[in-house]
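Q: Fold this one first, please.
A: Sequence and structure below.
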Amino acid sequence: MKLEEYVDQVVRDLPCSRKEKQDMKDELLDHLTSMQQELIEEAGHTERDAASLTIQRFGPVDILKRQLAMSMPLIDKYVRKWVLGLFGLYVAVSCYLLLLSPDRWHRRAFTLDWKARMLQYGAAEYTHIFQNTLPMRTLFDYVLHFEHYSVYTIAYNLLGNIALFVPLGLLLPLLFLSFQSIHRVFFTALFASLGVEFLQSLFALGSFDVDDLLLNVLGGLCGYGLFRAGAAFVYKQRGKAGTDKPFSTFS
């Protein structure tokens, strides 16, 4: 078997993009060619015998393929650039929805007008339109007094707060090894949500609600759960390297 054929068989079904496969193929072929050349020059082997010995030292295709597959990250360096761009887009869209949207600034105008009126009437205690520091208060209110709210309002405030942080829990561990920990995802989602609540309160773009924190963190943990499930599936598929089954992967 020629070295090129051997390398082709090794990298053919690896779970990565074409560019990454080509990079790996070039690197592996370069290393094999160097070893072959050493056997020719130092041991006096023919080119054919040197190629056979080189392949023999590297080991069977199935074993090498499995080792390479299991050592690779979930996404290769080329796909990672696109995922990183997607994460940046997610941050930008989240900032717009939570802090910069026209609806937020209309709400700000109403809030400032309300505070001015309450101060004018000497009722400073009513300047805070709504604040909730009691966990589960808002959630129980939606359940016990659901007839006072529209389905859209309930879905927007409950499912929306969860869904908004799902990409955070999914993309962070996918991009950064240091975030492949449920504790880091938990505290990142918590502090990110706290930051949003603080900015909304500071600029009168919203009101503080501790239940929003709970739902945001829950969304981050749901995203992390999706990451762990996807990672388990990918590594299970990679463990089948050397069989006739193709790989399935995030890339």
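Q: Good. Now the second chain.
A: Here it is, same layout.
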Amino acid sequence: MAGNTSTPGATVTSRLLAIVGAFDERHRSLTLSELAHRAGLPVPTTHRLAGELVAGHALQRRKDGRFEVGRLLWDAGLLAPVEGRLRQVAEPYLHDIYAATTATVHLAIREGTEVLYLERMMGSTSVPIVSSVGSKLPMHCTGVGKVLLAYAPEEIQEHVFANLIRVTPYTIVARPVLAAQIDRVRRDGLATTSEEMSLGACSLAVPVVRSSDDTVAAAIGVVVPSLRRDRQRLLGALQVAARGIGRSL
């Protein structure tokens, strides 16, 4: 349960934060009762506080009565120092990739043991895409995820290897196979997937290396129907953009 503040003495601030914290990747919209349950608050209290958040544009209420995160929270989130600066620097380079490839383009960072998508530009080709800006996905079955996993701390890698889940019939869940792929990512500086996150979608991704200290700040990637054609063109566009972002950071 997200933020149980039903105990006596909980402040108004803690209750408001519990309501905001009730939303996550798997719970993007909530009914009043669902919101109250996940926040650990009585329904009347939730109704009153959620109404105030809607009035302040921190939440929004759909016509069917369900609550969603509002524009105020979204705009505030974009001001986070690391993510905001990274998105600002990367945006023109991502546009360059899109212009050169017309593929779906991703910018992502690691958050814990998952991939957090900071930016997505939809390509002109119809490809099944499950990511969205602000969403989090598993590391082991996405191109940007494999890149970030390759440069993650050992304890993060161990956690991911110990919790491999099958998303599609082609998701790699054999630890030795994935470990070998991660080794190749570090050696070759690129990662690929083939229908491992969604059927009909393949991805190619590279690390963004901060030139000042040679650390991996993010990963950028493209999603296409197949990597059999234009692989080198896609890779070239990604590598040029990654170097530009790394220098700018």
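Q: Anything worth noting on the second one?
A: The longest strand covers residues 215-224.
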